[in-house]
């Protein structure tokens, strides 16, 4: 009996084991099938993605070609004499209107002048940055004049209660910024967007600070610019000079770190132009001639660290000398302040008149003749000499723009 039951139990165990392994095998097959479907789906998705990516890349390529064609067409249209004349007429009109209406606003609605200044500063400086970046001149934007404009905007809209910032803005605006118009021969050339922007950067901050100091009613000063009331009728000479030196030193340190040291390879290679390399390479300029006399000049005209440090020392001395009259006279006496601003503006007008008579009248005609020659390839061979002289004159104008900006 025992022997009969034992084989029966073994058979049942074998059936049980067989069924269990069959179950495992079925589950494994199912998992393999699912994995295969997932892999097929992945491959299908990958193929679709490759097709979609290829289509997108092709569309991007076509759009890029179309954009380049449109930019080329636009560039060609911008070089046409008719467009140049229209552009310069508009720039001239806007420049004259701004010159006329700014004093009117300062006299009749002085509380609006900071708003007018802010709108123009944001537009002109931003546009100049992109224009200069295209020409690889954008390191000029890090110069002291732009730093002073930034401080002025910060005082007007963020820290109007700061006596220190007000004093620094007043001295920098009436000192280095305004005097630079005389030293660097900034010209009020109404048809030139670049020269008008340069005049704005150097002239509008002192005009704005003058308006806030002398023309804005006291009630408006108390409410919106309390620092003016707190400073009083005189600037503390010692403290004002100290604060100005501190703010100036911050800018100079940042400029040295990010431009002189941080971008030294690009500057030394000549791929980027800065204010100090331009002045140190200008052999006819005062700075370069003074460097030669001191003995820092080298045969290969390399701009070494000693030249740069000497240039910074000269710039610091210029800043210090230019702010002394601000602390002693301009801030305390309204009419002396007004005479100074009018004199600086008159110098810019005289420089502009000299530019129109001595340079522009010849260069403008040659430029239009050159462009007309490009439009008419069958013109006589005299256009070749015109082309060369116009290129030379245009190069001089571009360099003058860099120097006076």
From TrEMBL:
Positions of transmembrane segments: 90-109, 115-132, 139-158, 164-184, 196-216, 241-262, 308-331, 337-357
Top-rank taxon: Eukaryota
Residue span of region Disordered: 377-405
Family: Belongs to the GPC1 family.
Keywords: Acyltransferase, Lipid biosynthesis, Lipid metabolism, Membrane, Phospholipid biosynthesis, Phospholipid metabolism, Transferase, Transmembrane, Transmembrane helix
PANTHER family linked: GLYCEROPHOSPHOCHOLINE ACYLTRANSFERASE 1 (PTHR31201:SF1), OS01G0585100 PROTEIN (PTHR31201)
InterPro entries, per database record: GPCAT
Coiled coil: none
Organism: Adineta ricciae
The protein's name: Glycerophosphocholine acyltransferase 1
UniProt-listed Pfam families: DUF2838
Skewed-composition ranges (Basic and acidic residues): 390-405
Record GO terms (molecular function): acyltransferase activity
Compartments reported by the entry: Membrane
GO BP: phosphatidylcholine biosynthetic process
Keyword Ribonucleoprotein: no
Membrane topology recorded in Swiss-Prot or TrEMBL: Multi-pass membrane protein
GO CC field: membrane
